Amino acid sequence: MIKTLIVLRGLPGTGKSTFAKLLVSPENICEADHYFEGENGYEFDASRLEEAHSQCHNKVEALMQSGAERIVVSNTSTQLWEFSEYLALARQHHYRVHVAVVENWHNGNSKHKVPNDVMRKMRQGFELKI
């Protein structure tokens, strides 16, 4: 069995979460956004973003420790450093890594109502390693 970590990156609204669901079962999908989902739907709070990413990281680590065959991390990760901790976990737990950028070919809009100026900054600062 080859254990695999798939990192999906992309701007809000590109369909990362939808694509992740095509790749693995929901329990093997790790997203910082899951932290903000509650009884009243999605309620983003920028002051709790560090906690959200910590929870995502902890879930990935727990899945790797349990030997999950395939794990998907689906966050914006516009900067390469933003997912480096997952690469380190993958090395530590002997996971092969695939990184994919999800593009907005379906003209989707972010369900998270990200302001246009924030989207513009994210787009302008998006780092690629090709």
Give a description of the structure.
The chain is an alpha/beta fold. It has one domain: P-loop containing nucleotide triphosphate hydrolases (Rossmann fold), CATH 3.40.50. Helices cover 34% and strands 18% of the residues. The protein contains four helices and six strands, in the order βαβββαβαβα. It has helices at residues 16-23, 49-65, 84-93, 116-124, and strands spanning 4-9, 29-30, 37-38, 41-42, 70-74, 96-101. It has a four-stranded parallel beta sheet with strand order 2-5-1-6, sandwiched between helices. A two-stranded antiparallel sheet has the order 3-4. Strand 3 and strand 4 form a beta hairpin. The chain is globular. The two termini are 28 Å apart. The relative contact order is 0.27. The model has no long low-confidence stretch (mean pLDDT 94).
